[in-house]
Design goal:
Blueprint lengths: L27 H8 L8 H15 L8 H15 L4 H11 L2 H11 L12 H10 L5 E5 L6 H14 L6 E7 L2 H9 L1 E3 L8 H7 E3 L7 E4 L1 H6 E5 L13 E6 L8 H11 L3 E9 L12 E5 L2 E4 L4 H14 L1
Parallel strand pairs: 1-2, 1-7, 2-6, 7-8
Antiparallel strand pairs: 3-5, 4-5, 8-10, 9-10
Bound molecules: S-adenosylmethionine (SAM).
The site of S-adenosylmethionine (SAM) has 26 residues, from loops.
């Protein structure tokens, strides 16, 4: 199993990022403790088992360096289930087939770092792309995490189309059911808007008062533009239907190996309108794994009407007929 997924910064599951519904507590005592004596035994074999299971289930290829992260995130599952060793926890997970525990295991191992208008250069490109569309605009955000990305898309559509209720719909999906709940509530700590121009913040968010002081909520019009759904990019069938004007697939492919990336990209093609755009994360390059796309701009792709593979096949056919 190739090791990937080392990127994406801090471990938000340590509670350093406010997720809208609960304030995470950084458990520094436990973190320090893990440097010395561990609460639970965690052997290299346990780590390999976790790597294999999450790879099979979510396509996430955990790097060798992620042992501490895996320990601290799954130790919480051991405490929650009352199981006293990683070996017994993994045995129970595999033998009982408990869907809830599989969900909790998967949620614990995803990394959900995101922000409003992350990779800001994408949004003017999206605005230009949708501005003169005749049909309702349809967009898929396929690793939407806690919702900042699909709401940024929704804000961009409102601004580009000059209304709070544009003819537009965003389907926002993620494998992690916890982040989807947060996204669906649309409540954030006010400092998540620090980098947003005040006019934009005022137009699209409501400020909490009293017990909600320090929080903001996305306006209902914005919330109504987005449907949140669980979707595992590795699953055999996806509960969505295109065609889409754009797909946002940002900062998730880095967790997958190349064959997995290639399969997912091939499945995007029939879901895209002929002139649709595909937005990737800053460190993701899809040209190495698929010939179905060509680069439109920095980390923005469009369908290549003459993919290299098809061009080569055509050239070979022509050679034979000459
Ligand atoms: C680092 S976040 C990126 C969030 C957002 N796209 C952005 O760029 O800000 C990666 C997200 O991918 C999700 N993810 C990981 N594996 C997945 C899978 N197999 N299917 C769907 N989503 C997955 C994680 O739950 C996480 O929320």
């Amino acid at each position: 199993m190739p090791a990937a997924g080392s990127g994406c910064g801090r471990d938000v599951k340590q509670g350093k990022q406010f997720d809208g519904m609960r304030f995470g507590v950084v458990n520094s005592v436990r973190q320090n403790k893990s440097d010395t004596a561990k609460e639970f035994e965690f052997t290299p074999r346990d780590f390999e088992r976790v790597r294999g299971l999450i790879y099979k289930r979510a396509g996430i290829a955990l790097a060798e360096s992620k042992q501490e992260m895996v320990y601290s995130r799954l130790a919480r599952r051991l405490r929650a289930t009352g199981i006293r060793s990683f070996e017994a926890y993994l045995d129970a997970l595999e033998s009982k087939g408990d869907d809830n525990e599989w969900e909790a295991f998967t949620n614990a191992l995803t990394t959900n770092l995101t922000s409003f208008f992350r990779e800001a250069h994408h949004f003017p490109i999206l605005a230009e792309h949708v501005r003169h569309r005749k049909d309702p605009v349809s967009i898929w955000c396929c690793a939407s995490s806690t919702g900042e990305e699909p709401y940024s898309i929704a804000m961009t559509l409102c601004e580009a189309l000059g209304t709070m209720t544009p003819q537009a719909h965003i389907i926002a999906t993620d494998i992690d059911t916890n982040v989807l709940n947060t996204a669906s509530n649309g409540i954030y700590a006010i400092d998540r808007l620090d980098k947003m121009p005040p006019e934009r913040a005022k137009r699209f968010f409501l400020r909490g008062k009293g017990a909600q002081e320090g929080l903001v909520r996305v306006r209902p019009e914005l919330r109504q533009m987005v449907t949140f759904k669980q979707l595992n990019l590795l699953a055999d069938s996806w509960p969505i239907s295109g065609p889409f004007d754009a797909i946002f697939c940002r900062n998730v492919m880095i967790y997958f190996d190349k064959p997995t990336q290639s399969k997912i990209l091939a499945r995007f093609v029939p879901l895209m309108k002929p002139d649709a755009l595909l937005f990737a994360g800053h460190s993701e390059n899809f040209l190495y794994v698929s010939d179905a796309f060509k680069l439109r701009g920095k980390t923005v792709y469009e369908l290549d009407p003459h993919p290299t593979g098809a061009r080569h096949a055509l050239a070979r056919r022509l050679e034979k007929t000459l």
